[in-house]
Write a structure and sequence with these properties.
With 310 residues, the chain is of the alpha/beta class. The chain has nine helices and 15 strands.
Length: 310
């Protein structure tokens, strides 16, 4: 659903019009993220703009827009050698783990995925980024579709009314396991994964869920990750709990048919959400929610098999 772009600070910061045009093209809701390469990418952009003679009033706007776009510039654990040029670093990283494209000012760069700012339009094969598509309902395809969003996020909420760790209720574990294994390979920092599902008489009570969880999640969680399970019920005459989402602090995805792996003959529509919309949906599943009522305690599962009921 998302693509990672390497954007040369010297290219985006060369002048005000280029900066304004490009920065608005990035964000999780637009399907494009800027790789923080180097770590002080924003500072490099500002330095470039100052050196190019951008007026003070425009400089203030650049600084403010960079701050507003902090969710669009993401650290994907890339290696950067300050003794080498930005181009050399980027091409080396591209060979190891490809970017969707490299946006740079040098038209002579010997890389088929390099484009200049003037070519950054939806007509460009390398820049076009659909915000919705059908995803084959296998663990591998579902996890691939969510990987970059998960890697860029600090907080992750999975919303599926039918989510269940029991195999007989559907294969929700395989896509989540595949996602976490791919995630830890590129961004090893531990995360808390919160899962929200709908209450039903057929669900086990929290103490039984906690008892069975270690066996059901054995090998699922990378070291120091944890999984939190939240059960919710609808208020009478209130909001229906039906839609499925993968929500984060930087954006989200609405998922049509659900997050379970049902095989290669089925697809689900994945659609990127506007950032503000994603946060409004997340608020439905907060402790002070007035949209749904939380049922019972939270079941927290750790990577070593320890389970807490809190």
């Amino acid at each position: 659903m998302l693509s990672e772009y390497a954007v040369e600070p010297a290219a985006i910061g060369a002048d005000w019009e280029t900066f304004r045009y490009l920065i608005e093209k990035f964000g999780a809701d637009k399907g494009r993220l800027i790789s923080r390469l180097p770590n002080k990418w924003e500072r490099k952009v500002i330095q470039t703009a100052k050196a190019a003679g951008v007026p003070d009033i425009r400089m203030a706007s650049i600084v403010e827009r960079l701050h507003r776009s902090k969710h669009a510039v993401v650290d994907f654990n890339r290696t950067y050698n300050p003794a080498e040029s930005w181009i050399d670093n980027t091409v080396r990283e591209h060979r190891e783990r490809p970017f969707r494209a490299i946006i740079c000012s040098d038209q002579a760069i010997s890389c088929a995925e390099a484009i200049i700012p003037d070519d950054c339009s939806d007509e460009s094969r390398l820049f076009h980024s659909p915000i919705s598509r059908g995803v084959t309902r296998t663990a591998d395809e579902i996890s691939d579709a969510l990987l970059l969003l998960a890697a860029a996020a600090s907080e992750i909420d999975i919303v599926d009314p039918y989510f269940d760790l029991r195999v007989a209720r559907g294969d929700f574990v395989s896509p989540l396991g595949a996602l976490l294994q791919k995630l830890v390979a590129i961004v090893p920092d531990p995360k808390v994964i919160r899962v929200h599902f709908r209450s039903h008489d057929s669900r086990p009570p929290p103490e039984i869920l906690a008892r069975d969880a270690p066996a059901q999640t054995n090998g699922l969680l990378p070291a120091d990750f944890c999984l939190e399970l939240y059960e919710w019920e609808e208020f009478q005459n209130g909001e229906d709990f039906h839609d499925r989402f993968f929500l984060t602090d930087i954006g989200g995805v609405m998922i049509g048919a659900g997050l379970s792996a049902e095989g290669p003959t089925e697809t689900a529509t994945f659609t990127l959400l506007d950032l503000q919309h994603a946060q409004r949906v997340r608020s439905r599943f907060s402790m002070d929610s007035t949209t749904y009522r939380m049922v019972g305690p939270v079941v927290r599962i750790y990577s070593d098999g320890l389970v807490e009921v809190i």
